[in-house]
Protein: Glutathione S-transferase
Organism: Rhodovulum sulfidophilum
Amino acid sequence: MPASSTPKVTLYFAPRSRASRALWLLEELGVPYELRVLDLTRADQKTDELLALNPMGKVPIVTLDGHPIWETTAITAHLCDVFPEAGLAPKIGTPARADYYRWLSFGTGVMEPAFMDLVKKHEVNTRQAGWGDFASVKRAIAAGLEKGPWLLGDRFTGADLVTGGTLDFFTMWAADQFADIPGLDAYLKRLRARPALRKAREIDQEVFARQEAAHAS
Ligand SMILES: N[C@@H](CCC(=O)N[C@@H](CS)C(=O)NCC(=O)O)C(=O)O
C-alpha cells in the first residue's frame, strides 16, 4: 500500500478493558496510531460524540480516516486485511481462512458468553443458546490447540489475538476454570512472550495508573 493511502488510525481505548486486544493488534501490525483514552468510570464512552461512533457506548472503537469500526472481531478482521504486510490473515478462499474466521467468531461470539454464564451462574438452555456450554467450549479450545504452536498451526494470526487474547484475559481472572485444557499453559506463555503484547500491557498499565491517580486527586 503506498504511504499516501495509509489510513489514519485512531483507537478509542480504556485500560483494563476489552480494548486491550485492539491495542495489542495495533502493536502487532506496527502501524502508527493515535490513542484516545476514555475513562469508563466517568462514562466517557456515553457522550454524544462517542455514541455517534458506537451506539453501544462501548470500547474498543477504531476509526480509519474517521470511519468507525466497533466490535473487536470486526476491528481485527478488517485491520488485518487493510495492513496485509503484517501477515496476520490467511489468503481469502483458503481452508486456513475458514479456520481463521471460525476462531475470530468463536472468541467473542461463543467463548465469552459461555464463560460469563459460568461465572455469573446464569441458567440457560444450552441447546437453545447459540454459544453452548462451557464444557464444549473447553473441548473446542483443546482441539484447536492440539497442533500448535498457534490456533492455525505454524502461523500467528488475528484469530490468536481475539480467541487467544480472550483466553489470556479470562485465565487471569479465573485460572482454575481453564486448568484442565491440555496445551493451554504453553499457548498462553507463547502469547505473553510476544513483544507486541508486552508493549500493549505496558501502555495499558501506564494509562491505568494515570487514571487511578486522577481519581485519587
Ligand atoms: N463485544 C464487544 C464488547 C465491548 C465491551 O463490552 N467493552 C466494555 C469494556 S470491557 C465497555 O466498553 N463497557 C462500558 C459500558 O458498557 O459502558 C467487543 O468485543 O468489542
